[in-house]
């Protein structure tokens, strides 16, 4: 059975750090990426969608994946707002003029999808906090429209009802993470046929491995995870298209193993293996525009 991981960050791994990458010859960079991709291939993971990086590693991965007979989609780098979460995944902008300049760079590098970081991440110290919505609706709408006119889908990192609702309204193609949302957003995703990639593995793996450095945060993490799991079941019943993405490269989520962690967490919720693989492959194929 061939598998799709709809959300990874290949630049975050155990082989190299950002500084090493920048100071290494292309031959070594190719060696690192090839090693990772071949491990994916060995486990029958044949298609990957990257969430972006600031060092163009995913661009090289796309090139090598083609040589390896794999499919790889990359946004090149993600777009975030200055002084907000996400600069390590790409480039920070401060308004539409900044975005126009960076979008030209993305087009030069043939982005497969536009990645927008709209909110922060789940705050393990304060239940319910996911940071501010980084872009105004007009800015979000402009970026979304630009991507559509160029002919690429829009992948949005968003958590919380406010951010996810704005992304849905703007007409994005996929919602990444989507922690702490309400039934309203689930209905809207179903209605607009927006794909949801709920990335359980980062929280699931922390809980499963019981890391001591999270001991004061485990209750909040468990609460958020439980809500996400319940929302996934509800979303499936509502007809939301759910694709599996591990967020490989995130803390506690290893390259290659991450998608199998994700599959396991879905099965633990009561989904049959057939249903999980169908979500993984059919909705993953749509997320990657295969």
Automatic annotation (TrEMBL):
Sorted UniProt keywords: Hydrolase
Pfam families reported for this sequence: Amidohydro_1 (PF01979)
Keyword Translocase appears in the UniProt entry: no
Gene Ontology molecular functions: hydrolase activity
Domain Amidohydrolase-related intervals: 3-290
Keyword Hydrolase belongs to the record: yes
Domain of life: Bacteria
Protein name: Amidohydrolase family protein
Organism: Clostridium muellerianum
Lineage, uppermost ranks: Bacteria, Bacillati, Bacillota, Clostridia, Eubacteriales
